[in-house]
């Protein structure tokens, strides 16, 4: 009986979703994750899972009921303002029309909750923690397209029939398939945290509302997200060169003066409310440079290795689809792998490895077709959000979508 030995590099949403789907269908795999444990680093803010991509993957993985317990449908609420503070759209303070039970189109969930749910859904022995991949090489003397994994701790895991790179932007697996490498998108965001907002930041809590609050303008944007742990993360983003954070003269090690300098130099002509958001979110500060892969990146399929999620098609966050497409990748790949299983008892190892290679080739074709329009959408969002009139265009698009939805009911 041929049982493929499968390695997944990275325990993010893509890698964990794939592992869960395989295990849920009685196929073993191993995840190698560089973090020491699940609490090793911050997992980011909140995200919305779409009903036809992220939620579908969870449904197929038997996790949709657990997700519905953790999801925040009120997080779909949205507020859009101009740079001068004029409110163009606001349904972020209206929760009366939110369904008490799913299915919801695109409810929010904190990234840490999603990851913990996925971690708890796989067997503890499936994940090998503190395993930083150093290099990947074809297995010695092997003509069957197997690979060995060499880790920074000196250990080697050998002869995997399939290695899936779910290891994000700076993937160690990608160079086996393509020479493409992430490039700077032109945008740097200053991430600002406000904790215990209802008690300590009541004005900000009320201003942002139940979901997201956006300001878009030429060369700059302000994006605010309410998180489920009574906190808000605000991202003051500017279109500047990659070296801007080092060359701009702002001392980021002093958050109070850094926020004031950011406002004075890049948001000085904005409305008082817009500037107050930056000043009021004063509990932490981090710099985030946005990188991306070329739109429509593809490669010639290679037996024994493939990519999913950001490793395959890194996008900027300005379409809000990254994690959803990554989880759709995981579902698609799992289904293609499982499609080979019926023949595992009846064919030779060599034929089944050929079948597995063909399944990967078919998966990649469908992934390329799925990724390209979403990457283009992200690129268009980047261009539109950081343009004059970006807020007006975004608000008008929301109005049109809402009117279309209401007229179809």
Automatic annotation (TrEMBL):
Key word Flavoprotein present: yes
Pfam families registered for this protein in UniProt: FAD_binding_3
GO MF annotation terms: FAD binding; monooxygenase activity
Keyword terms, alphabetized: FAD, Flavoprotein, Monooxygenase, Oxidoreductase
Keyword Oxidoreductase: yes
Signal peptide extent: none
Tree of life domain: Eukaryota
Domain FAD-binding: 6-340
PANTHER family xrefs: FAD DEPENDENT OXIDOREDUCTASE DOMAIN-CONTAINING PROTEIN, MONOOXYGENASE ASQM-RELATED
Protein name, per record: FAD-binding domain-containing protein
Origin species: Umbelopsis vinacea
